[in-house]
């Protein structure tokens, strides 16, 4: 499978060799989805093939990358509701550039693919995040669904009892992930960790007291509206899709608690 001496291959595949690739740090920071990782690997492969064979092969690779780029655009805009994804995509391409620099395209494509798989494996091994108290690890967050309806105050008390808060979505990826997490339970609304004292997004605050929804929000049109209610619920996809809506805090709804993550030894 490789032209390299066996001792070099063994050294390369040792877990400690993960530390040689700073790329894994960037992967951990970005929390890339499977869709994004697939796009990155395809970009590496098609760019390598196009540069090596030129001509019609390069044209085909360029067309395929155009199709994949359009699909990635749809993924960000339609599925994640993230129209401003340029900076994230730029970071992904920077990671790919770093991978290319490691081997400088002096090796065959098989080795580049192995390198990509190896780096992502290192990423998975280094990202040894766990959850306690029976919480589920979802998108690098610890969440637990409570299906028995409660008013907002009681929901908060339950979460506080576990050492956490009601769930908070501060990115489009998190906002989509929580919908996927609870959608199979037949629930259409859940309380979330947001409380509004006014009708501006800067007047709605996350339960962890770190910032307001001015940094990220997915309020439905016409919201926030503290006159409707100061508490906020998340409309599970389909009713409508992942939008935030104000409601009276005494309303009884299911809820998701969020705990800080923990880390186990490797």
UniProtKB/TrEMBL annotation:
Which is an annotated Pfam family here? Hormone_recep
- List residues of the C-type lectin domain: 138-258
Cross-referenced SMART domains, in alphabetical order? CLECT
Q: Which PROSITE patterns match?
A: C_TYPE_LECTIN_1, C_TYPE_LECTIN_2, NR_LBD
> What SUPFAM superfamilies would the database entry show?
C-type lectin-like, Nuclear receptor ligand-binding domain
* Keywords, in A-Z order: Disulfide bond, Receptor, Transcription, Transcription regulation
PANTHER family in alphabetical order: NUCLEAR HORMONE RECEPTOR FAMILY
Domain NR LBD, chain residue ranges per copy: 1-137
Q: What is this protein called?
A: C-type lectin domain-containing protein
């Amino acid at each position: 499978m490789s032209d390299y001496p066996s001792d070099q291959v063994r050294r390369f595949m040792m877990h400690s060799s993960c530390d040689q690739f700073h790329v894994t740090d960037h992967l951990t920071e970005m929390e890339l989805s499977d869709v994004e990782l697939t796009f990155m690997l395809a970009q590496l492969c098609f760019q390598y093939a196009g540069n090596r064979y030129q001509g019609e092969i390069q044209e085909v690779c360029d067309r395929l990358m155009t199709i994949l780029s359009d699909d990635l655009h749809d993924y960000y805009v339609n599925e994640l509701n993230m129209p401003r994804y340029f900076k994230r995509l730029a970071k992904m391409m920077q990671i790919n550039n770093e991978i290319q620099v490691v081997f400088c395209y002096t090796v065959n494509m098989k080795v580049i693919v192995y390198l990509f798989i190896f780096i992502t494996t290192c990423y998975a091994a280094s990202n040894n995040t766990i959850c306690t108290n029976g919480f589920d690890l979802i998108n690098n967050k610890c969440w637990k669904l409570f299906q028995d309806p409660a008013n907002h105050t009681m929901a908060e008390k339950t979460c506080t009892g576990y050492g956490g808060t009601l769930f908070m979505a501060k990115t489009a990826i998190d906002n989509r992930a929580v919908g996927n997490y609870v959608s199979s339970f037949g629930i259409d609304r859940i309380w979330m960790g947001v409380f509004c004292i006014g009708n501006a997004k800067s007047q709605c605050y996350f339960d962890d007291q770190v910032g307001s929804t001015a940094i990220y929000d997915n309020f439905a049109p016409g919201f926030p509206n503290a006159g409707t209610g100061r508490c906020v619920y998340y409309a599970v996809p389909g009713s409508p899709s992942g939008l935030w809506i104000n409601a009276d805090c005494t309303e009884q709804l299911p809820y998701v608690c969020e705990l800080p993550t923990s880390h186990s030894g490797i």
